[in-house]
Amino acid sequence: MALLADFAEQKRSFVTAQTLSSRRAFERTIASGLHEASITELTLNDFNRDWADVEGRLRAIPGKEALSAFNARLQNTYRINVTSTSIIEAMLESEIPTDMRDLLIGISSFAAKRVER
Question: What's the pTM?
Answer without folding.
Answer: 0.72
